[in-house]
Give the backbone structure.
Amino acid sequence: MIVWINGTHGVGKTTTAALVQRLVPDSRVLDAEKVGETLMDISPGLPWTGNFQHWPPWRPLVVETAHQVLDYTGGTLVMPMTVLVEEYWREIGDGLRQHGIPVRHFVLHADRDTLRRRIEGDTVMGPSDFRLAHLDAYDHAARTWLHAEAEVVDTTRLTPTDAAERIAVSLAG
């Protein structure tokens, strides 16, 4: 199974995923961003689109990477990755279904003011214009399709540990 942890940039997906991994037996974290980083390392580079998710190879490579890892290890993959384009989510989901891989899709949500404070106060990555620039895209996705496609965990007043525990309880239930 895949536990996909979605949400906007800076909401706490990577931190929460590591905590979920500790709570879910026989699980491991696969960050789909690493697939994008691999594509970014191609030299000379691929035509820049502003986001590696827009490169057509990224989505099937994420699917195939997850499929191969699960075939090799079994268990559960916890995948923290922002996907705000519905077409991309459908492509990934369809590809995983074709391999017979069940997906539990969670979205970490926080109100806009909380997100802005978290992004601007991030002591690890520092303030990020990239993260702030995606708040509108997240709002649009949340209103139009994303929240209807996932189990929403409102982290506005939760710690990452609390969010991870809610996900683990949902998975066990």
Notes: Residues 86 and 145 are 7 Å apart (CA to CA). The chain has one domain: 2-172.
